[in-house]
Amino acid sequence: MQILIVLAWRNLWRYTRRTTIILLAIAIGIWSMLSISALMRGMVEQQVNNAIRNLVAHVSIHAPEYRDAPVIEHSMLSPNSKLLNLLNNENVKGWAMRVRVPAVVRSERESMGVTLVGIDPAQEQGLSFIADAVTEGRDLQNIDDKGIVLGRKLVEQLETRIGKRVVLMSQNRANEISERGFRVVGIFAAKMEDTEKQFAFVGRQVAQTMLGMGNEVSELAVISKDRNDLDNLLQSLQTAAPQLDVQPWQKMIPLVMAMVNVSEGFLLIWYLVVFIAMAFGLVNTLLMAVFERTREIGLVQALGMKPSWIMGQVLFESLFLLAIGLCVGNLLGWATLVFTANGLDFSRYAAGYEMAGLSSLIYPVLTSADLIIANTLIIGLGLIASLYPAWRAARYVPVEAITRV
């Protein structure tokens, strides 16, 4: 074994230029796999987080008919003691009750359709984007705050401003139109313009009083400590509230989940493309090395070296190439992550990114799973691809190999 390793290492560097080229190809291949996967993961992670913070949460609880028709008739009672105990356990990071119904907001000049959201500002901390999105004026102070917070784009369309009064109109519990005047106390900015035009935030108690809802709410939003491990929490909530519609975030934002699946498919295709390109280069390098050493291989066979040893020697050469290339590629990937730790600025394409639910600053994220998969794929399939050159070397007949010109 020691002799085979020494011979493989020496043979590898007999043709320095060719070895260097294939090493660079392997290193660039693994670097591209890690860099592309980190960028894709960062984009997907940001898109998922933005969608969850856009009033979705990790788990959403509604009346059974609410998701099909989000109107006041499909509201629900405040959580009972059993459900409250679950919401306050150690696996739940935060939760909030909201009133959420269609409405019309009217200023002195314009009227726009919006979603009226009654919130408890204290509960929204760390739960949704509105907790830290106000850029002008002030946040809502409590559940009976008499002000209203509107989005920047909505304010522009209504041609209003901080301190001006607007009128909200919506259907109340008696199926009549209820309206109330509010003074604009805050303007929020969101990552997407549609969000700024969609929501109008008021205190939850004010919304309940205006709509005659009593203690009823439209939804319960729950944030878990781990969004990827919701099975136990989801099952417990469904058991505690069997009459309600309890859904994880994956069901609430199917479009984002489709984007996640598309990104997974893209990464798989990219991995295969890189591997195929690398495999052709690796096989070509090893075949050339074998052909150039045909007489040498025949001679060592004649001296007693077994075909399996020759095959092992070629595989060791492949292993050295792959190992060195992977080390260099991983170092390049790590350096790329360090260099982009403060994010990649795509502000030139900000409008397009906002349409996709992304901000113009992307933070690459490399998971341990991607690192293991990329390295295992390259070294495992690379050795498999090297079997053919090794087999060709092992099947030479000594006399024919020695006499070949």
Task: Itemize the secondary structure elements and their pairings.
Blueprint (H helix, E strand, L loop, with lengths): L1 H11 L3 H38 L5 E4 L18 H7 L4 E15 L4 E9 L14 E4 L9 E5 H7 L6 E7 L5 E12 L4 H6 E5 H8 L7 E6 L6 H10 L4 E4 H4 L1 H39 L1 H9 L4 H33 L4 E2 L4 H6 L5 E2 L5 H18 L1 H8 L3 H6 L2
User: How many domain units?
Assistant: 2
What best-fitting shape do the alpha-carbon axes yield?
A: elongated
Distance between the termini: 30 Å
- How many H/I helical runs? 15
Gyration radius (Cα, Å) is: 31 Å
Could you give a short description of this structure?
It is built from 15 helices and 12 strands. The chain is an alpha+beta fold and 405 residues long. A hairpin with a 5-residue loop joins strand 6 (165-171) and strand 7 (177-188).
Give a description of the structure.
With 405 residues, the protein is an alpha+beta fold. It folds into two domains: 2-51 and 256-403, no CATH class; 57-252, no CATH class. Helix content is 52%, strand content 19%. The chain is built from 15 helices and twelve strands. Strands 2-3-8-5-7-6 form a six-stranded mixed β-barrel. Strands 11-12 form a two-stranded antiparallel sheet. A hairpin with a 5-residue loop joins strand 6 and strand 7 (177-188). Helix 2 packs across helix 11 and helix 11 (307-339) runs antiparallel to helix 13 (368-385). The mean pLDDT is 83.
